[in-house]
Design brief:
Length: about 190
Amino acid sequence: MNKKLYVISGSSGVGKGTVLKGFLKRNPDFMLSISCTTRKPRPGEQDGINYFFLAENEFKECIEKDKFLEWAEFAGNFYGTKKKYINECLEQGKDIILEIDTQGALQVKKRMPEAVLIFICPPSYETLETRLRGRHTEDEDTIKKRLLEAKIELERAKSFDYKIVNDNLEKAILELETVINKERNNA
Ligand code: ADP
Ligand code: 5GP
């Protein structure tokens, strides 16, 4: 069986984290990559579990030392995936999932053309806004920045391999399973 890298992107608040949580519960043999970020932790988020939380100078040092497979600035913060972490997982023969923004996804595809890019879409822009606001994790200024990014992300998603609409959660998880199983068996 072929070991692969799956990249999941989608506008902030679309439900990427929720869909992935459901997927990973049923498919525990997949590794979810832990990214680095300069964003401040949300209540309940833990360093080394949700993200590796870095100061901006630490993040920039990693850029200079070419430690990232990909990195991007998103809505005022930096996010990146460490090369070392991904290589270790692939060497251990694990399928790996990256949950990153569309700028990062396109960088990964350039470096690793075998990566499978999956974009999670909202049923409508209004639903996206309702979900993002309903999460109560961002202030108004951040919500506005993220909603603006959502329009740009939708444009970049045109070059993705698959699109999944997250309307009914169970249906979205099932669709993700179908896509990944198909790719997994395509050696
Ligand atoms: P993302 O990781 O894409 O930023 P989250 O997974 O945090 O988004 O989801 C944003 C909000 O939308 C959360 O409050 C979550 O419970 C809710 N949500 C996710 N998927 C659905 C769905 N299919 N139907 C209704 N609400 C959803
Ligand atoms: P959040 O702040 O809501 O956790 O994430 C904001 C955005 O950053 C989301 O679109 C998320 O997918 C993206 N993101 C998380 N980690 C990475 C990463 O390592 N690289 C890139 N390019 N984007 C990331």
